[in-house]
Specification:
heterodimer; A: alpha/beta; Rossmann fold; 2 domains; seven-stranded mixed sheet; five-stranded mixed sheet; B: alpha/beta; two-stranded antiparallel ribbon; 12 helices; 35% helix; globular
Chain lengths: 340, 413
């Protein structure tokens, strides 16, 4: 058994890079400010010094070029991990992701592939305003050919990043930035918690993987199922605990392909379900989940499946906590679903 | 080249080509200095030493069909005939495939008529292990690398032998064994990818070069800027070719900014070396590509090459050029026809003659026809046989996930 250490999500992501760079000479990491400085959140801090400038380096401020360069490198035998500084900034690279990255294997009938990882911090809760708070995952879950993941804790973040880099498919990993330094349960008035006291903050220092496509039941329960990912996993846990609801809480972890088997098993057991995400409601990933839940679990359902999401507005700077789907809204939805 | 606003009233300018249908063709504004050919700097020179070349023209074949000047690559008669063979094969292949589209055998086609030298000469100047990121008018690269024509046609027919399993439009070839990347069909997206590919080769210490091609119109895309920035910043061993064929479907090169500066001149701001080349001069394209490849292989990084040529036919089978430019424009193009020029040069050298040319034309025409027959025996787009329908759900991911398995079952395949 390998050693473990207390890590924040940032340290866990950094450690995943370190392990990958150490184990596989094809791996390289780059992004805006990701080299010498180690990234604006520090996810690649110290790695250039340790692994050299040709393996961990800064890029020009051009997300399309970052994604394109990664595609070219990956097609030519490397395993790039590219950081997009904020998920809000990923859109200049959208064309490269939609039209090129996702289709390369298909378009070439498997002759060329681009096994690479794009990582990007997402979500609100740090007063980032409309340009540093987005959860744009559903723009990407609609693209055949890429995998989309969002870990909710240090242990998963490291294991999933290693799995992503070792995957033969391109993987887009959203990292909820509000979770970088501690588990955030949706209550902004409480003192910040530390990962050091959380069981998922205990992270092996060496190599391990958390498989993509597998959800994690973070709380077993019989009253209703809650499907969440990212920050909303912690909001769900706190809401259920405080309201004394015996919820079964599923941390989806991977959005494409999502673990419908685990969801269906749970919903068929509880007969009730609430789906959570921080992203806006209309056309959000919750719509996909609910559509599939009603197709697969309709006859087991005792109540309509509810969604708790961000509003269909841009993320407002001053009204962050009115926008964020916090404990009160989550609790209310759970109670309404139980009482329906 | 610079056009001052034509009136002193405020407003914006929508550039217009010198001639539209019914007008007399006029290429005087393109700035082709045919009398003062570009000098040849040392391939290891500082990039800035090439910047005066942005407004001149690298030329080897003069109007008397003689090879002259510092850029003359001194090719053997055998290689010259090989170049002629590749260009003529490309043209006859295109002619036949275009006709087949008109007969309903193909859904779509794009010819490289008039600009065959761009791909043929570059294909010969590069090494086989050099990586190619072409656009859709460089089928000559495939002929330069001796790709099986039957395989090419099978791709265009999307039949059961199509190496892309019926997933791509005709002409959008992929050929990994030939170090030929996949043509996506989106414009410019592959320019910065080529830089990434080149960086990976360099990281492994390989001395291979990567070359990519886009058109004049595509230089307006952000990916052009991205590619030039990356190539310059990381000193990548890549050749970035801008094929200025004057027309982007119906938009003349001025709509991409070509009236205000040459496309080669765009290199200056990136600190990249540039060459502006007579793209209908096989020897000039060969020499310029060789110059850039030698430079890149020696670790001196990327070069931007503008090949000045003319798209002598429609953009594709979907447009009619007589609706946006004079019918006589191709014939009036001052740089002539690349095949005629190389042919006349060989004749000048006493290494070719009209009867041999006719015989070659006849032999290649027959070869294309025979290859088409053979390709057709593997199926056609409309009638098949194709790859199995179930293959549509493959290669989206390395392994088929549950949702695609379900969707395949929904379709009943």
């Amino acid at each position: 058994m390998s050693d473990s250490a207390k890590m924040t999500m940032i340290q866990a992501i950094n450690s995943a890079h370190d392990v990958l760079l150490e184990n596989d000479e094809r791996v390289c990491a780059f992004g805006e400010d990701a080299g010498y400085f180690g990234g604006v959140f520090g996810c690649t801090q110290g790695l250039q010094e340790k692994h050299g400038k040709s393996r961990v380096f800064d890029t020009p401020i051009n997300e399309a070029a970052i994604v394109a360069m990664a595609i070219g490198m990956a097609a030519n035998g490397m395993r790039p991990i590219a950081e997009i500084q904020f998920a809000d900034y990923i859109f200049p690279g959208f064309d490269q992701i939609v039209s090129e990255l996702s289709r390369l294997r298909f378009r070439t009938a498997g002759q060329f592939t681009a096994p690479l990882v794009l990582r990007t911090p997402c979500g609100g809760g740090i007063y980032g305003g409309q340009t540093h708070s987005m959860s744009p995952e559903s723009f990407f879950t609609h693209i055949p050919g890429i995998k989309v993941a969002m870990p909710s804790n240090p242990y998963d973040a490291k294991g999933m990043l290693i799995a992503a880099s070792e995957s033969e498919d391109p993987v887009l990993m959203f990292e909820p930035k509000r979770l970088y330094n501690g588990p955030f349960d949706g209550d902004p008035h409480k003192p910040a918690l530390s990962w050091s006291k959380h069981e998922k903050g205990e992270v092996p220092t060496g190599h391990y993987t958390v498989p993509l496509g597998k959800a994690d039941i973070v709380r077993k329960g019989d009253a209703l199922s809650v499907v969440a990912y990212g920050t909303m996993v912690h909001v769900a846990l706190a809401s259920a605990r405080l309201a004394g609801i015996d919820a079964e809480i599923i941390d989806l972890r991977t959005l494409v392909p999502y673990d419908m088997e685990t969801i269906a098993k749970s919903v068929n057991k509880t007969g009730r379900c609430v789906v959570l995400h921080e992203a806006p409601r209309t056309g959000g990933f919750g719509a996909e989940l609910i559509a599939q839940i009603q197709e697969d679990c309709f006859y087991a359902l005792e109540a309509p499946v509810k969604r708790v999401t961000g509003w269909d507005t841009p993320y407002p700077h001053a009204f962050e906590w009115q926008y964020f789907p916090g404990q009160e809204r989550v609790t209310r939805a759970m109670i309404e679903t139980l009482e329906a | 080249m610079t056009h001052a606003p034509s009136s002193n009233t405020l407003g914006f300018i929508v550039p217009e080509p010198a001639a539209r249908p019914g007008d007399t063709p006029d290429f005087s504004s393109i700035g082709l200095k045919l009398d003062s050919p570009a000098p040849r700097p040392d391939p290891m020179c500082p990039a800035s030493d090439t910047h005066t070349l942005a407004n001149s023209l690298v030329r080897v074949l003069n109007d008397e069909h003689e090879a002259q000047g510092e850029w003359n690559p001194g090719l053997s008669a055998k290689d010259l005939r090989k170049g002629l063979h590749i260009m003529l094969k490309t043209r006859l292949y295109d002619v036949r495939m275009f006709k087949l589209q008109r007969q309903g055998k193909l859904s779509f086609y794009m010819k490289s008529m008039g600009e065959e030298a761009v791909a043929a000469a570059a294909g010969m100047a590069l090494r086989y292990e050099d990586m190619l990121f072409p656009s859709y008018r460089q089928q000559g690269l495939l002929f330069a690398r001796d790709r099986d024509m039957v395989d090419m046609i099978c791709h265009c027919l999307s039949n059961q032998r199509d190496n892309l399993k019926g997933r791509q439009l005709p002409v959008h070839y992929t050929w990994k064994e030939g170090n030929f990347f996949s043509i996506s069909g989106n414009l410019g997206t592959q320019f910065p990818q080529a830089v990434g590919w080149a960086m990976a080769s360099a990281a492994r210490g390989e001395d291979t070069v990567t070359a990519s091609w886009i058109g004049d119109g595509t230089t307006a895309e952000g990916d052009f800027h991205g590619a030039c920035t990356l190539a310059s910043v990381y000193n990548a061993p890549v050749i970035l070719n801008v094929v200025n064929n004057q027309w982007a479907i119906s938009s003349f090169s001025g709509i991409a900014g070509g009236n205000n500066a040459t496309f080669a001149a765009k290199a200056i701001g990136y600190g990249l070396p540039c060459l502006r080349v007579d793209g209908n001069d096989f020897l000039a394209v060969y020499a310029a590509t060789g110059w850039a490849a030698e430079r890149a292989r020696a670790g001196h990084g990327a070069t931007l090459i503008e090949t000045v040529t003319y798209r002598a036919d429609a953009h594709s089978t979907s447009d009619d050029p007589s609706r946006y430019r004079p019918k006589e424009e191709a014939a009036a193009w001052p740089l002539g026809d690349p095949i005629e020029r190389l042919k006349n040069h060989l004749i000048n050298l006493g290494e070719w003659d009209e009867s041999r040319h006719e015989a070659l034309t006849e032999a290649l025409t027959k070869e294309v026809q025979a290859n088409y027959k053979k390709a057709e025996s593997y199926g056609t787009l409309r009638e098949g046989p194709h790859a199995p329908v179930s293959s549509m759900f493959e290669d989206v991911y390395a392994e088929q996930p549950w949702h695609l398995r379900r969707q395949r079952q929904d379709l009943g395949v």
